[in-house]
Amino acid sequence: MWKLVAALLIVAALVAGCGSGSGDKGGNAAGTTAQAGTVRLLDPAAYKAAIAGPGAFVVNVHIPYEREIAGTDAFVPYDQVAQHAAELPADKSAPLYIYCRSGRMSALATPELQRLGYTNIVDLKGGMQAWLDAGLTLVDRKSGG
What we know:
This protein has helices at 2-18, 44-51, 104-115, 127-133, and strands at 32-36, 39-42, 57-60, 74-75, 96-99, 121-124. With 145 residues, it is an alpha/beta fold.
């Protein structure tokens, strides 16, 4: 009986180990919480670390404006992505970091970004609400603070 239990434990460990490797050629940071096709969802700590890197292009897709993450490069309303395509990076394979207030609008913007050819979309899981819950700060460019 103990041999059967040991064998089952080994199989379970092997199966669990198969899903634990990152396998991500895009440099997925620790803290990744989910992956769906070409969209990566990062928790606030991993997202903050990722956008601090060189060449990060950060887009707030939330409407109306409700503050922003420092260093945001563009504001593209989630429902007007195609109309604002000229404001997005020309390199469609470069990481495109998107966020909104809760994650809902960025999820709605994703299919249009993919239709436009963006293949490396990174979304902030939980949006600015999760960012604040993690003790991180937002800035209000419109009111000067």
